[in-house]
Amino acid sequence: MNAVSEKPPLPAAGGNATPVPARKRRSRLVRILRPAIGVFVLVAALVTAGWWFTEGRYVQSTDNAYVQGDIAVLSPRIDGNIAAILVQDNQFVRAGDPLIRLDDADWKARLDQARAAAAEAAAAVTTANRQIDQQHAMIDAAGAFISQAQAELVRAAADASRATTLVGTGAGSRQAADQAIADARKADAALRSAQAQKIAAEQLLSVYQAQALQAEARKDNAGAQVRLAEDNLSYTVIRAPFDGYVGNRAAQLGQHVAAGTQLIAVAPPPAQLYVVANFKETQLKRMRPGQPVRLVADIDGDDPITGRVDSLAPATGALFSLMPPENATGNFTKVVQRVPVKIVIDPELAARAHWLRAGLSVTAEVDTRGPDAKRLGLFGAAAQAATQLIR
Prior knowledge:
The protein has a 6-stranded antiparallel β-barrel with strand order 1-10-13-12-11-14. Strands 2-9-7-4 form a 4-stranded antiparallel β-sheet, with no helix packed on it. Strands 6-5-3-8 form a 4-stranded antiparallel β-sheet, with no helix packed on it. With 391 residues, it is an alpha+beta fold. The two termini are 85 Å apart. The chain has 5 helices and 14 strands. It is elongated, with a radius of gyration of 51 Å.
């Protein structure tokens, strides 16, 4: 059995050159590209190092950050049936705009009742004042009776003295003298009676004055009841506390609600939102209020906005939780704590950020170099570092 032998290919006609193998071509390409790759890696390392020493080491970043807003959950202050819902879901409202109206028939009746009680109390005050005026007149009359009784007593005493003198000389009768003495005693008794009547009138005046004070107090109480009824009537309309968007509407037409029932919420507009970023305790050494912050939202990573550090929480987030940790008992495991940092957003930038909503997740990058620091980026920071080295 003859084996089939393969012959090497014949060279091309008219030529003596042999083709270069592919392995040699790859080896030559590697020898050519290796220095270029090394230079590229070196330049990339220098650029990264320049950015790190100029800017990167001062930037503290966390993705544990969320957009927050002072959302107001509105509840009625009185009970009643929902008569009308005056807004639509997610509608923008102005401060003071009516949102929900309760049935106000009962509260109007209570206001009328309070006003009637206030009118009655005012009439009682007028009556008490008239009684005081009348009693002053009675005291004046009693004073006049006292003056009259005093004059009569003087006359009767003089007559009694003359009658007694005449009896002693024999010029007058004993009967006349006794009559004069009796008249003097009657005049004295009349004087004491007039004085007693004046004292009684003055005491009765004190009673009337006390009753007038009571009437004034009842009048003030009735006025307070009127104001309370007016306030309760105004509470039948639930209004927006500030400009914002309504949402989370739980109210239903015709529903009977009690005081404190959550009916609707008002969220602030983007210009009033802020970010709470929970930084690790190891990131807070150089962090100060006023430092610039770059905020990148998960919903739109291509549209970052800027803000600034407003304040740092007085304690870690764990201490503000419902059940703060107690490390003095049981086994201890050290966990890096986080501190909430409030970041305010430029209102103009926030108004242009259509995506900004409370509750969204963002990545916060704080530049701890200071409030005037500018972010140059990777190549800008490297160029600045190179310029400083050349100088």
